[in-house]
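Subject: for your reference before the review

Hello V.,

The reviewers asked for a structural picture of the protein, and I figured it would be easier to keep everything in one thread rather than splitting it across files. Below is the amino acid sequence we used in the manuscript, unchanged from the supplementary table.
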Amino acid sequence: MELLQKVCTYCWNTSWLYGFLVLLLTPVAGIILTGIDRKITARMQGRIGPSWFQPYYDLVKLFSKKPMALHRPQLIYATLHLVFMMAAVLLLAQGRDLLMILFVQAFSVICLVLGGMSVRSPYSWIGSQRKIMQMLAVEPVFLLMIVALYLRDGTFLGSDLFAKGDPLLPSMPLLFLAFLCAVAIEFEKSPFDLASSHHAHQEIVKGVTLEYSGPFLGLIEIAHFYEIAFFFGLMMAFWHTNIIIALLLALGGLVFMVVLDNSFARLTPNWMLKFMWTFPLSMALANLIWLWVK
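And here is what came back from the structure prediction:
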């Protein structure tokens, strides 16, 4: 709770207009990106697909349902999941310390895990355990990426990194590929859709969000929109010197993950952990060593 108080104090002291616009427009961007995801998926499967704004319609429908909860703490954890994800987005937009941003984003995921474990459903517990496995798979890659940024520019502040005149991708190509693998796990894309099966195209049981419904599931969906826009912005940051190239790069990464999602079946958590700790982590370490000796 002390961390939450510090985050709220920081948000209070920032520019109200800028912070309001960031928090307002970020989920809108997440809805649009989710619509693009669904449209591409539908075309790959020979379907027309839903409306571009179907994620928004689904969200309105969730909030129109009667609130129901099995256990009061799960509501608190769902709210904290959204609050910390919003804080991570705001900190990134302000160009703050990247280690702090990584910690806040990870704490948002931990809140979702605790919410899944606060009920007695075995399927929810299994989803939470798999979410922990996903964190073990992606956090080392995120940490190595931030260390590489420090070796490259000598600072952890996002504002100082974005002020540099040269893009990140030419000096961090292997880290970008490793980052894409980590983002695919965060987006619950096959073969890594282990914790919640977000689009429910491989199983009936939902996983970590199984015992959420109505407005409380809507809170998690809003947090997911923030998360999509958050990582999309990080992909754009690899070519921050040109907004058009940055947008194309991030869209290319999104399309790659959608193609990956529709080309592979879900695999086991142990396979995911072994894969992430071999190929992507090795690429990240190789890129880090190259920056060290450069």
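For the response letter, the relevant points are probably these. The CA atoms of residues 78 and 220 lie 6 Å apart. The mean pLDDT is 85.

Happy to draft the paragraph if you're swamped.

O.
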